[in-house]
């Protein structure tokens, strides 16, 4: 649905509107979850009142702008249910192995964590691994999330557990299969040829469910082949493409020099996507760490804010948990000091130093200090800054504006 249509829907406090609403109050107003279209919409206090909502204790103080403080709870939690996977992808962000990690949680532990997240008002769960589709209790976890009012989504490699997944796929809001290239490009990126198996998994899943999409990690080897990904998604009638930035995490630390996009590719990302979308109108979701690659082309900041295009929101809009239950700011980040568990999130969330540098993005350094996009970009990817510069608080070294600042050159405007 176009933005204007979504706005019109929020201007109509009609109890017969399509799909139920869920509301969570925030200091700035609140967040409305719509079922049709699927969306989380940020509204100020006046709009929330107009829609019939009450902020209760969260509106006792002065109204603050979105971004001035962390949300009352994450919007989404990324749960790595297991670190077991036999694929051995060269860039695996968790360094998954067939044996998994010592001390991995079981279904009882994850249900307790889901209860804690539900009590805070988390809207969505993103379940992954390792390969969570191979877990015999995955359906049990998804059903429990549903019973607590949260929508579970799943990412799978499509290489294992598909037979079992077909029986429970209805429990998920969205299922994305990880495909980093079509045909031989898949093997170039992942280090082995698994495309045919992943493609068959997509075919089978799509026969059962409409909301099947792709997760594609953008690398220097598949960047010039993104058009193939778009054509493939259209051919298989998939519901979305999610493009992810390659980050130095897990086995990806070792393969980062080989797989990370070049500066020229990062600068060309937004013009490339615009061309692809003109030819293949599609629902595309971009990793939050790609925000600097959009902002560097002087995209309208107001429109970005209106569409909730933000940079690193780890420890704020989202959190993650390792297979052992350890809470992290995002799926790629190291655990905070003290290694809190995800079922302890309510207590940890309000601590002054929670998530360390992930919440300290407002303490900007140049060129972020003078950048008008900083309130949206938030300084870029902390994981990349930590790996490349040794300090997660420094500006993202792959941001085109940061690269240009370091070279003291002017960014070219690509169309």
Keywords:
single chain; 415 residues; alpha/beta; TIM Barrel; nine-stranded mixed β-sheet; three-stranded antiparallel β-sheet; 16 helices; disordered N terminus
Folded structure, characterized:
The chain has 415 residues and is an alpha/beta fold. The chain folds into 2 domains: 3-59, no CATH class; 76-356, TIM Barrel. It is built from 16 helices and 12 strands. The chain has helices at 3-10, 45-50, 107-120, 138-147, 162-168, 184-190, 195-208, 226-235, 252-259, 263-279, 291-295, 301-306, 345-349, 374-377, 382-389, 400-407, and strands at 21-26, 29-34, 39-44, 76-80, 124-128, 151-156, 175-178, 212-218, 241-245, 284-286, 318-321, 327-328. It has a 9-stranded mixed beta sheet. Strand 2 (29-34) and strand 3 (39-44) form a beta hairpin. Helix 3 runs parallel beside helix 4. The longest helix has 17 residues, at 263-279. The chain is globular, with a radius of gyration of 21 Å. The two termini are 26 Å apart. The model is unreliable at 1-5 (pLDDT under 50).
The proportion of residues in beta strands is: 5-15%
What is the mean predicted local confidence, pLDDT? 92
What is the count of distinct domains?
Answer: 2
Give the name of the CATH superfamily of the largest domain. Answer: Aldolase class I
Could you name the CATH topology of the largest domain?
TIM Barrel
**Helix fraction by DSSP (H/I, runs of at least 4):** 25-40%
